[in-house]
Write a structure and sequence with these properties.
With about 450 residues, the chain is of the alpha/beta class. The protein has 13 helices and 16 strands. The two termini are about 25 Å apart. Belongs to the class-III pyridoxal-phosphate-dependent aminotransferase family.
Amino acid sequence: MTTTPDIATLPNGLTVDEARAEAARTYELDRAHVFHSWSAQAQIKPMTIVASDGSYVWDGEGNKLLDFSGQLVFTNIGHQHPKVVAAIQAQAAKLCTIAPQHANDARSEAARLIAERTPGDLNKIFFTNGGADAVEHAVRMARLHTGRYKVLSRYRSYHGGTDTAINLTGDPRRYPNDYASAGVVHFNGPFLYRSSFYAENEQQESERALEYLERLIQHEGATSFAAIILESVPGTAGIMVPPPGYMAGVRAICDKYGIVMIADEVMAGFGRTGEWFAIQNFDVTPDLITFAKGVTSGYVPLGGVAISEKIAATFADRAYPGGLTYSGHPLACAAAVATINAMEDEAMVANAKRIGSEVLGPGLRDLAARHRCVGEVRGLGVFWAVELVADQQTREPLAPYGGSSPAMNAVIAACKSGGLLPFANFNRIHAVPACNITDDEVRAGLAILDAALSEGDAAL
């Protein structure tokens, strides 16, 4: 890390020296006692974060980093938003916790605010602790509603780390956990840059992907499928925006065969694509929506399922066999209420759309035009991916699918040393800042990324 602290006192009141001492102790305890997810424990060196504010975080050395990662793409309103922090404090003083069988005002209001923003008649909200269990319950609802078992999910997707969710996932994290017994059928979705359908344009990609999907359903037995689950815009897998007509075509196939359509909005929802829910970019109404992350900007864990009237009616006089101890937890729901209201009051969703079309998108396309290691940039709002390649003609990835490479590591290191915290996965850098990021902050991040991409060029 070559950046230097630019202030004597961090936003949390610690001096840089105090922050360094705290970080040293934090790191020592982490390595002694914390078991990290998705990691070989002896091979990691986690960055210690000692403070955050707005679009920035401070590491254990007191270095200030512009957060282009959204952490795990969840700080949709940035860090330490005062209205949300205050709401959590007020709720803790009023009603810290209560069992889910009791109504509480924070949960009722959060449900109302979410239902007002969902498309169509998805007016019932089942609250979970996070995204993975939202997916688990959405699939359970679909199976009970239809009386069927199989579920369709695309390759190049991520749906969570619990048992059903990880089996639905279409990336390498599934492999060690997949015993082919979860009733999941994977399929190839549209991704023109790396087309599975030999398409030459978006229309061909959409048409051929839909034809393939319907044929697969027929061959697998159309009456055996309870649901299809799709990230409205796949996130960790690469931010592949569906081509025009594809999501509407999936909706039509679901209607034709009586299959429940589940839109996974855990990462793409709550403003990230410039709409409250990413599915609204495609004028399609699913039967179920799963959400988490941005609903509270990650300040307190919360997820949920938005349920259509037809599926909710299945459980009007029939008990739904599922629940969670912390479903609709008051602290989490108070954070959701404050987050949604802050996003509304400060026009953050509109800002995300404008930033994507006027600043971030054009800036990334400019980088693509000037760097040999960039194969493609794609995205919406504040949800973008930079696909890095070793060869623009062959489109050979700069790092293999499921892995990394020295060249990719050099780009990531250059981002951090320049003062940018990126989201990186395989051969991609994702530009996923907060929905309320400013134009100047985006331009500063692009300038750092520009310099870092030169490391990728140098490796070719």
